[in-house]
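Task card 7
Instruction: Convert sequence to structure tokens.
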Amino acid sequence: MSVLVAPAQAQLPPPLPSLPSTVSPELQSCVTRFGHTGCAARLYARLLCSTVGKRGSTELMEQQLAEQYEQAGIEFRGITAEQVETAAVRYYAPMLCPAKSPEIRQLFNPA
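Output:
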């Protein structure tokens, strides 16, 4: 025999988890300020700026970027990797690290 619960007695689902308190204000407002594609490209460019010319683990960098994407709340529906890469290399890297921008462009457009 099944028991039906009246709507007034139904339990509400638990609240959605909030962003961890360690998330920077920049990540919290990134999507609002730059949109999903722009935020993803900006975070990618920032990672490129901080790592170009240095030795490091690609896996670690990918993990850091994935964590930042998650913390910023980026939704990738309808966004291609090429769109993010192009915006990062052509627009955000020159803005965030002008001195390293030519080297970053060279990585993605070898002659």
